[in-house]
Amino acid sequence: MAISARENDGEWIHRRTDLAQTIRPFERDGDNGLSSDDFSLAKEISDAASKLSVKAAPWVAMLLLWRALTEVWWENRYLLLWVALEALFGSTNPIETTYRLTQRLAFFLAEDRTQVRGLYDRARAGYAARSKVVHGFRHLTLDKKKANDLLADSEWFMRAALCKILTDAGHRRAFVDERKRENFLDGLIFD
After folding, report:
1. Most exposed among 66, 123, 144, 153, judged by the fewest C-beta atoms under 10 Å?
2. How many angstroms separate the Cα of 45 from the Cα of each of 11, 88, 161?
3. Which residues lie below 8 Å from residue 125, measured CB to CB, with a gap of 6+?
4. d(Cα 60, Cα 79) in Å, to the nearest integer?
5. Residue among 83, 165, 92, 95 nearest 127 (CA)
6. CB within 8 A of 31, min separation 6: which ones?
7. How far, in Å, CA of 35 to CA of 86, rounded?
């Protein structure tokens, strides 16, 4: 809850009260604590985000991430995460959507070439589950552990991608313009 008030001659005058959606940590993260480094990173990310255009892919992804993190229902949370990932890594060309999105995501997040295949496989499995949800709730055969693993991976992808983008000026420049983003992501594969 956020309360807006102003002081007038020593008396507080209430302006308005707003209720904010509560962020709901993933059950595996519920007991995690925050360090001073986490708060420093949050400030750095917040400062960088405050300078983004609302039309930029990272801004759209952050908006969708916030909505996802307030969701209780697994399906909504999962789909919003994948729409956010599509805002960052999806192509403007709809041909081979799954392949291009998951490949771009893997190459961007991998610390070196040896990690690409594992990240690609995890992203592809996540996108396949996203498609099952979108195309008629065909994901209901997933057991709870598998569903939670997919959700944990999706949240990790978003967290890692936004941290990498927002803490690096070069990445921010590449992701704020659609053409630059496309060229940058396609270039990752061939470097």
Report:
1. 144
2. 36, 16, 12
3. 150, 153
4. 14
5. 83
6. none
7. 30
In angstroms, rounded to a whole number, what is the distance separating the alpha carbons of residues 110 and 97?
A: 20
pLDDT tens for each residue of 88-144 = 999 988 788 899 999 999 999 999 999 999 999 999 999 999 999 988 888 888 888
Contact 170, 177 (CB under 8 A): no
Strand partners for 5: 14
**Spatial contact of 161 and 108, defined as CB atoms under 8 Å apart:** yes
Tell me the HSE value of 15 on the side-chain side, using a 13 A CA sphere: 8
Q: Which helix (H) or strand (E) holds 159?
A: helix 144-166
* Distance in angstroms between the alpha carbons of the first and the last residue of the chain: 48
How many distinct helices (H) and strands (E) make up the chain?
Answer: 8, 2
pLDDT score at 85: 97
Residue type, 188: L
Under-70 pLDDT residues of the chain: 191
Give this prediction's pTM: 0.84
Q: Write down the pLDDT at residue 94.
A: 78
What gap in Å lies between CA 118 and CA 100, rounded to an integer?
15
How far apart CA 162 and CA 155 sit, in angstroms, is 11
Question: Rounded CA gap, 189 and 172, in Å?
Answer: 19
Q: Domain spans of the chain?
A: 35-190
State the DSSP string of 9-60.
TTEEEEEEEEPPPPP---GGGTT----HHHHHHHHHHHHHHTTS-TTSHHHH
